[in-house]
Structures are given as structure tokens and as C-alpha cells.
Design a protein that fits this description.
Layout: E1 3-5, E2 11-17, H1 46-93, E3 97-103, E4 109-115, H2 118-134, E5 149-153
Antiparallel strand pairs: 1-2, 2-3, 3-4, 4-5
Length: 159
Amino acid sequence: MASLTAPDRRVWKVRRRWLPKRRRMPRRGDLDATDGLFALDFVDGVSSLLLGILIALTLALALVLVWPLLALAVELIALVFIALAGLIGRLLFRRPWRIVATTAGPPEDELAWDVPGWRASREAIEIVETALRAGTEPRAPDARSQAPRRISSSEPEAT
């Protein structure tokens, strides 16, 4: 994905978007700092305290070293399967590729086209890049809608 500069001096990036934009969900914590203190109820003397500290350190070490590696391996395997399934699905069912042209502005803008087929989407990227370099309104061939869809813009659309 190369950047290009339009005559209005805005820097654009034109690319295929593989996945839709993620919506971030707010997180709420249900635990507070004192919730783990119930674990100290088993302490009878010094030996059980030392045993508890040893067990806690062992669990902490395992949690810090082993769990992230295991989670990373599982996530990588899942990512490979999901990527392969998505690619096969797009190729077999001819789901359109989303071509996006984005600029940080000013004004910030993002244009999008849905183009079926890998080759057609590559040609659409080249046509959009050429149009943006020339300073004209980009139109992608073989797009389901010839006019670009404005996904986000800091300027209101003219009606």
C-alpha cells in the first residue's frame, strides 16, 4: 500500500480492506483490589504462609510465562484458519472486496467501493490511484455502485 499525493496536497492511501472496521465495546471491571484477600483465610502459621507464598509464586510464574505462550499459539492457529476460511469464502462465493481510499486531510475523508473479483479490485485500485493523482473524482470500474460511498468525512456532503 503506497501513499500518493493529490494536486490539493492531501496524501491518500488506496487499498483493499480485508475485514470490516471493528467497533470497540466499552469494558467494565467487576473486580476491585480487595477481591483477592479471601485467599489468605487458610493461613494457620509460618509454614502454611511459606507454602502459600511458594504456591502463589509458582502460579504467578506459570501465569506470566506459560499462559501467554499458550494463548499466543492458540490465537495464531485460529487466525490462520479464519484467514483461510475468509479467503476461500471470498474466492468461491465472489464476495466483493471493499476498496477504500483514505486521507488524514485536511479535510479528513474516506471513500469506498465494493468490487467483486480479485483482479477487478486490483484494476479498481489502479484506476482510483490514477484519478486521485490527477485530482478528479475517482470512479472504480466493475464496482456495484460506480460513485464512491463516503464512509467518513469532516465536511458535510452536498445534496
